[in-house]
Amino acid sequence: MTRFACLALAGAITVFAGAAAAETYTVGTLKIEDPWSRAMPPGARAGIGFMTIANTGSEPDRLVGGASSAAGRIEIHEMAVIDNIMKMREVAGGLEIPAGGSVALKPGGYHVMFLDVPSSFVEGSDLTVTLEFEKAGDVTVVMPVGSIGAAGPMPKHSGGMSMGGMAAMQGQ
Amino acid sequence: MARKKSAPSARWISGVVLTAVALLVGALTLGWYRSEVGDKGDGLLSTPVTTIGGEFSLLDTESRPFTDKDLAGKPYAMFFGFTYCPDVCPTTLWDVSQWLEALGPEADRLNFVYVSVDPERDTPEQMKSYLSAFNPRIIGLTGPRENVDKILAGYRVYAQRVELDSGDYTMDHTATIYLMDAEGRFAGTIAYQEKAENALTKLRKLIGVE
User: Fold this and answer.
1) Which residue among A38, A88, A108 sits closest to B170, beta carbon to beta carbon?
2) What pLDDT does residue B29 have?
3) pTM for the full predicted model
4) A149 contacts in B (CB within 8 Å)?
């Protein structure tokens, strides 16, 4: 059981470390949870960012864009793989966050698109990004950068561990 | 910044048309696949056919000529993408890198080939830099537009340039990994985000160790 206790402690420390990086931000009636990004291969010019945005208010709002020193431009895009074909489009007019609802920006769907990225995002670093909402205004969030293949904002309890291991191996 | 879109309707119409074309191509390909290729019963690899694939002449990441002849004698997995692709391409390359690790020494028995659908931006130097983040076994190919178009046609790959309002462009493209046997015949596919276990089973079948 000592071994189990050690593992539990290690898990708790990991979660604590993750929580310190992945925060919840509030602006107006919006809550932005767990913003995160992925490392980019050297020479890649487009980066990606994800988060969940909840709207506790009675009016819908829209994520219309953003700005960051890490990118020349930020757009809001939607991606989908339909019949084995990957398609990506800018979300015209911004991404609606419905009143009383929430929208997940996640791999394979809506995302923040970083364009004209001068220097590839590096795993373990943080991006400072100002998000622009139509009604709530601007809010600055920190996006921790995971591995190129990261599936979520912090290592998962299963599956994510092997990815972390691989990242460590590749980093050597 | 929030900008008023000047012609959202035109955007949507072109989007709808593109989607319809893509769906038609997809449906036709799938119908063809079911009727012509069939399934050997194991649900993994099909009877190899020569109607997908064929000759090509491209450049590797050192700008050296690289043709279908350079792949002869070994099975290979071929997939298509572009270095400005933010999600599908890097995650697929990441998955492939993991499969190569998992295959261990067996990885010597096949090739992985990544072909750019965006040669205007993906120079050999750009491909070299980009692929340095992944397993070094992955062969990166690009080349003159007409040569790229030839391989896209041969492998029946859908690739379409889509303009963005900002003046940039993105590429819609087939996200499937093609599995080809040692004679360059199409033998099956691995779908985007297919489970690693399935993918590895197919790869091991392709190289004849399972």
Assistant:
1) A88
2) 56
3) 0.78
4) 90-91, 94-95, 98
What pLDDT digit, counting tens, does each position of B136-187 carry?
999 999 999 999 999 999 999 999 999 988 788 999 999 999 999 999 999 9
Q: Which residue of A has its CA nearest to B133?
A: A41
| Whole-number Å distance between alpha carbons of B65 and B47 | 31
Restricting to A residues 90-109, those with a Cβ less than 8 Å away from any Cβ of B are 90, 92-94, 107-108
d(CA A165, CA A157): 13
- Name the residue in chain B with its Cα closest to that of A74: B1
**Do the interacting molecules here have an ipTM over 0.95?**
no
B22–A82 C-beta distance less than 8 A:
yes
Residue B177's CB is within 10 A of a number of other CB atoms, namely: 26
Asked if A85 and B88 come within 8 Å (Cβ–Cβ), the reply is no
pLDDT beneath 70: ranges in chain A: 1-22, 154-172
**Dihedral (CA of A15, A78, B19, B87) sign:** negative
Alpha-carbon distance of B155 to A150, in angstroms, equals 30
- B22 to A87: CB separation less than 8 angstroms, yes or no: yes
Q: Could you tell me where the DSSP H helices lie in chain B?
A: 8-32, 88-103, 124-131, 145-154, 196-206
Q: Which tens digits make up the pLDDT trace of A24-39?
A: 999 999 999 999 999 9
- Least Cα distance to A144 among A28, A36, A4, A20 occurs for A36
